[in-house]
């Protein structure tokens, strides 16, 4: 993948999280999913179903961005260990509350990192 295309995908994820287009603000999990919607043929309903997975409410307390990225690894039957290791290295954890407590990455940065891991390992 060309670096320019990678940056466009990352920018799209961040745009959705920030609501910079003033359409609809998405949480961290939804922002990651939305940035790959066309590539993976993800429905709006599926993205809407992840509304409950932001703000530290993902299963097992996972970071929502991590949890959404994990979905893509599972969809391709690929171990998400590389994703987990990346989050532990850069965010200090895969759990939202721990990431926020450690303050190594902001929520916005978690969206960016999750998106980049998907690009670098699945596309």
Structure at a glance:
The chain has helices at residues 3-18, 28-35, 37-40, 44-49, 64-75, 81-91, 96-102, 107-122. By secondary structure, it is mainly alpha-helical. The protein has one domain.
Explain what you see.
The chain is an all-alpha fold. The chain has eight helices and no strands.
> SSE string, helix = H, strand = E?
HHHHHHHH
Averaging pLDDT over every residue, what do you get? Answer: 95
The share of residues in extended strands comes to under 5%
Low-confidence sequence ranges? none
Any idea what the shape is? globular
Biggest pleated sheet = none
Count the DSSP helices.
8
- Please estimate the helix content: 55-70%
The number of strands is: 0
List keywords for this structure.
single chain; 123 residues; mainly alpha
Record the SSE blueprint.
Layout: H1 3-18, H2 28-35, H3 37-40, H4 44-49, H5 64-75, H6 81-91, H7 96-102, H8 107-122
Helix pairs in contact: 1-2, 1-8, 2-5, 2-8, 5-8, 6-8
């Amino acid at each position: 993948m060309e670096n320019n295309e990678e940056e466009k995908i990352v920018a799209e994820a961040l745009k959705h999280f920030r609501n910079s287009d003033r359409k609809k603000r998405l949480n961290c999990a939804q922002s990651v999913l939305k940035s790959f919607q066309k590539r993976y043929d993800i429905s709006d309903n599926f993205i809407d179903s992840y509304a409950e997975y932001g703000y530290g409410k993902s299963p097992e307390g996972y970071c929502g961005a991590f949890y959404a990225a994990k979905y893509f690894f599972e969809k391709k039957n690929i171990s998400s260990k590389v994703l987990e290791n990346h989050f532990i290295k850069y965010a200090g954890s895969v759990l939202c509350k721990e990431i926020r407590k450690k303050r190594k990455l902001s929520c916005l940065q978690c969206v960016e990192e999750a998106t980049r891991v998907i690009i670098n390992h699945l596309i």
